[in-house]
Task: structure prediction
Amino acid sequence: MSADGADPILVVGTTGDPATPYEWAESLAEQLSSGVLLTYEGAVHTAYRSGSSCVDERVDAYLLDHETPQQGETCT
Result:
């Protein structure tokens, strides 16, 4: 699975996710030829709309304006 030719694909991974290991997000972003990993340093299962304006702003920009964050960017 590499999604060759796809526009950038945003992957959001949470370092302390109680249900999905962060390493899975890292691996997925690496497998996707256009994967961009956004890291959230927190302990929630879903980072989007969970209290981080940093994550919310970047995901909104991706969904609404097709803007991707910097590769490897971290939010707290």
